[in-house]
Amino acid sequence: MKKIIDNRRYDTDTAKEIGCDGYSNRSDFGFWQETLYQKRTGEFFLHGEGGPSSKYAKTVGQNEWTGGEKIIPLSFENARDWAEKHLEADEYEAVFGPVEEDDSKRLISLSLSNMAVETLKRLAAESGKSQSEIVTEMILK
C-alpha cells in the first residue's frame, strides 16, 4: 500500500518490515492484522487491515460495513510501545536495542524505633552512604 500523509510518502513495498501481529483469519469479520514498518529515513509507520467488525472497517452504506486498510505514521515512542505489546523480545531488541532492567527506586514510608533511626544515621555517617543505600544493602544480603 502506498499513501501520502502530511506530505510524507509511506510505501509498504519499499519500507523494511519490522514485525506484525493480528487476530483470526480473513474469513472472520473481526479479523485484523497490523505490520510495523521502518522507512529508510528512520520513520516508523503501521499498516493495518481488518474485517467489517475491526477498527479498520469502512462504511459502504447505511449500517453496512466492509473491511479496510490504513497507514498510520508513528513517532519513535509510539512505534516502540506498539512493538513492546505485539512483538517477541528478540524482534523488539533487534530494532530498539537491548532493554536495560529497571533499577529505579520507589519512595516508601516506614515506622522505625528511635534506636533504629539513630543506628541508621550512624551507619550512614560512618560509611559515607545514604540511609537508603544502607537499608537496601541490609535487605538484599
From TrEMBL:
GO terms for biological process: regulation of DNA-templated transcription. Pfam families: RHH_1. Residues 107-139 form the Ribbon-helix-helix protein CopG domain. InterPro entries: CopG. This is Ribbon-helix-helix protein CopG domain-containing protein. It comes from Hornefia porci.
